Input
Amino acid sequence: MKVSEKIECIEFPCSDVDVATHIVPYGEVDPLSTQLFMITEAPPHDRKDYFYAEGHPFYLQTTIQAFNDAGIKVATVQDILDRGVYITTAIKCGKAKYAVSTSTVRNCSLILESEMSLFPNIRAFLLMGDIAIKAMNYIWKRRIGRKIVPGGSTYKIRNQKYYWGEKRVFPSYTPTGKNYLIEKSKRKMISEDIGEAMRLIRST
Output
């Protein structure tokens, strides 16, 4: 299955993103074997840096490093997919500024919700960054009337266990971008969260 053939943004209503960078995962994925739904924040401004791009895209390089730091030896995006992990972004256009509005996150959460519904065997969610957390909380508020992940600094809330039904939810930090290379404390927390999520899906 190619997710890019299943979901789309039609109206592009958001004013604080760069619509020219709009992108949806286009790699071939197996929805039935996917158990871990990993959501980062936003796509890069250069398509060559996107997870599913050919060669050695920057976003994939740092994500691979995060998996390797967690003891999960991978070298390509296909290695990650083969381990039952699907990677996407909470919003589908690159950020025009450092932050994005709540309306943009809410708009994109509708697309993310459709994307999520393509994968029937999800056991856990890795929410990598504030935008991913907010987007999924919008989805949960629509579905069950409340958010799953509470407000607050990620480092304060990430050690608690959160569930949507039987699905485990991991709030964490984004493994993409140049900041990942310099923020050692966040790198450690990201690797811990990935490691715990992978142990969970491998326990079956």
Q: What stands out?
A: The helical segments are 58-69, 77-82, 102-116, 130-144, 154-157, 179-182, 184-202. Strands lie at 17-18, 36-40, 85-89, 94-95, 124-128, 162-164, 167-172.
